[in-house]
Amino acid sequence: MLNSLSGRFLILTAIFVMLAEVLIFVPSIARFREEFLLNRLERAQIASLVLLAADEVSPDLQEELLRNAGVFNVVLRRDEARQLVLSSPVPQPVAHTFDLRDAPAFTLIRDAMLRLYTREPQVIRVIGEPVRMGGLLIEITVDSRDLRTAMIDYGLRILWLSLVISIITAGLLFLAVRGFLVKPIRRVVATMQAYAAAPEDARRVIKPSSGITELREAEETLQSLQMQLTGALKQKEHLAQLGSAVAKVNHDLRNILTSAQLFTDRIEMSEDPAVKRMAPKLVNSLTRAVHLCEATLAYGKAEEPGPTLARVPLAKIVADVIESERLSAGDADISFSEDVPAHLLVLADTEQLYRVIANLVRNARQAIVNSGRPGEINVMADEDDREWIIRIRDTGPGLPPKAREHLFKPFQGGVTKGGTGLGLTIAAELVRGHGGSLSLEHSDATGTSFCITLPKGNLGQGV
Predict the structure, then answer these.
(1) Residue 204 DSSP code
(2) Cβ neighbour number for residue 451 with a 10 Å cutoff
(3) Is the pTM of this model over 0.70?
(4) In terms of CB atoms within 10 Å, which end of the chain has fewer, N or C?
(5) Which residues pair with 76 in a beta bridge?
(6) pLDDT value at residue 391
(7) How many domains does the chain have?
(8) DSSP alpha helices (H): ranges in 178-212?
(9) Edge-to-edge strand order for the sheet containing 447-455?
């Protein structure tokens, strides 16, 4: 109870109300003291008027008048003459004199607090103005015990009233907090617990319903996070299924490609010039296919192997990619060009860099073929003091909006119909493994341009 939000609100409200009552009590008790003394002055003035009206007053009557007024003596100043009107024996000397004429609030509060803390009975002198033009000044002496007793009684009444007010206020706030905050928060917590039990179930995503602005914003934010997490889990499940399927196919496919490599030895013995020219390309393609099968199995396990960095000639890699894609283009009206310095060496993994550039060039070729118009694909490279820069540009139709929105996301960023978007995802991951980045520079009706940057000081390797 006390550790709950509503319980702590209850306690804090009671404390704050009591503090507020204390702040109210201080000036209130000062005002009560002033009213008490003014009342004694007024009663003393009435008693003095009785004495002035009569020709002769007996000592017993004077004593009764002073007792009813609650004072020891009364001094009245009229017409510049100061006169002791009523008097009786004073038990002790006057300890303090208080002038109530135009007394500032701070003085009244200070004197009231001192009176509460002074337990010893004292005789005090009080000076004030007579009421109804009854003179210029009236002065009385009184016992402080009656004043202090009345002030304590008044303070206790204030205390009990404050307790009642604080309890009622805290109770009302407790009910309000439970209704407006605790119950909606518990509902959100219950929804989160239900969602945590089965985050793949989209039916368990919270539906914002709170009428409180802040809670509504929290619910909407939580809904967005849950939807993103549900989508990510579904994508992860899809990737896991893909990895399982690839693992099943990979073993047999790798054996088939290995057998095909054995046949290339006999092909290389052919005397046909065309075969001699194409055989090395076939050998390289089969070797890359075997390596890709091994790497694909690792990717299916979400364990893409790290790059084996070495100084490699970029021009040769680009030439191999373009020649392979030129053969794949067949009769399509696509021209390939490259602008890569022959001496340019980059620090990279040969096979992985080949896969990156091949994926980008292949995507560009497929986009141009699907558009039904002629096009051009260009691969260019440059370097500066910090990095190597490789750009793949084409004059195709550009990426569709959905592909740009979900770029580098598997199964969402596909460009061609039926595409999975894995090519760009794999390329971006491989480039990140080199410590570089793959970015889309622009894509519109005039074509698309991707940029690969590879750092020159990577993974502890020298430049």
Answers:
(1) G
(2) 15
(3) no
(4) N
(5) 83, 138
(6) 95
(7) 2
(8) 183-197
(9) 334-339, 375-383, 387-394, 447-455, 437-444
Residue 108: give the domain boundaries.
5-171
Q: How far apart are CA 28 and CA 336, in angstroms?
A: 95
- Domain end residue (candidates: 128, 147, 171): 171
Written as one string, the DSSP assignment of 360-386 is HHHHHHHHHHHHTS-EEEEEEEEE-SS
Q: How confident is the model at residue 259, as a pLDDT?
A: 52
Contact 57, 86 (CB under 8 A): no
Q: Are the beta carbons of 364 and 394 closer than 8 angstroms? A: yes
Q: Angle at the Cα of 375 (from 371 to 378), degrees rounded to 5? A: 130
Residue with tokens 């622009």: 442
Tokens standing for residue 449: 């341009």
At 338, list the tokens: 């490259």
Q: CB count, 10 Å around CB of 226?
A: 19
Residue 177's alpha-carbon distances to 4, 11, 14, 182, in angstroms, are: 11, 13, 14, 6
Question: Which run of H or of E encompasses 26?
Answer: helix 5-53
Report the C-alpha gap between 145 and 282 in whole angstroms.
117
Within-domain flag for 299 = no
Of 121, 144, 171, the residue at which a domain comes to its end is 171
Cβ atoms of residues 386 and 437 within 8 Å: no
Same domain, residue pair 13 and 158:
yes
d(Cα 174, Cα 186) in Å, to the nearest integer?
Answer: 15
Pairwise CA distance, residues 375 & 337, whole Å: 11
CA 273 to chain centre: 70
Helices assigned H by DSSP within 407-451: 422-433
The structure tokens listed for 139 are: 């002065």
- Reading the block at residue 276, the tokens are 């001699």
Q: Which two tokens stand for residue 19?
A: 């503090």
- For residue 140, give both structure tokens: 């009385």
Whether 191 is covered by a domain: the verdict is no
In a domain, residue 284? The reply is no
Tokens encoding 101: 């004429």
- Give the chain's residues under pLDDT 50: 300-303, 413, 417-420, 458-463
Q: What is the DSSP string of 50-116?
A: HHHHSS---HHHHHHHHHHHT-SEEEEEETTEEEEEE----SS-EEEEEE-TT--HHHHHHHHHHHH
DSSP state of 201: -
Residues for the chain: how many in total? 463
Q: Domain containing 322 — which CATH number? A: 3.30.565.10
Q: Could you tell me the end-to-end alpha-carbon distance of the chain, in angstroms, rounded to an integer?
A: 66
- Whether residues 311 and 167 fall in one domain: no
DSSP code for 14: H
For residue 79, tell me if it sits in a domain: yes
Structure tokens at 20: 């507020």
